[in-house]
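Need tokens for this chain, all 204 residues.
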Amino acid sequence: MLTKTSRRKALLPPQKVSIEEYFKAEEKSVYKHEYHDGIVKKIKTRTFISGHLSTKITTLVTFFLEENDLLYLVNGSDTKIQIEQYNKFVYPDAVVICEKPAFYQNRKDTITNPLVVVEVLSDSTKEYDRTLKYEYYRTIPSFKKYVLVHQDRKHVSVVYTKQLDATWIVRDYDGEDATAILYAIQQCPLSLKQLYRGLEIANP
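Here are the structure tokens for all 204 residues:
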């Protein structure tokens, strides 16, 4: 049963912290947290399937870049992205950077110039990833493509691509015979068959 003191604390708004305090705490934490304009929020632990999908995407994109001798950098879910306009620091599931990364205040764990961002959808995050988080990412000038990957439905991904007139086109790719084309990375093909291969064992 909650005491009067604990009930009062529960009704109080979350205490805001500075960016410096956030980074200091994050360096010592065993869990990941995002920073939302002073409010620190813990990220839910990824499932086996979501972890596999984000790793597979970084592998497939990296292989394409190496095969074609293209100078892009690919990283996983340990890299934070600054969204300056909204005073946020968030973790993507995967990120691609064009050539040289721009680091937030020389921090090698936080970038400011993502080209492509990948998020693996879950029941608890899919609405946020599709709407608010997408709107936040769109304010980053370097951001050109948003890839959303389903883990609860086989062989489905959604790609948002920025056009020259600043509008965005949404394309859905369904089924293991489909191939998503990442135009922002020299038309990098992302085969859904390769992406989801083997997951029938983990998610029958």
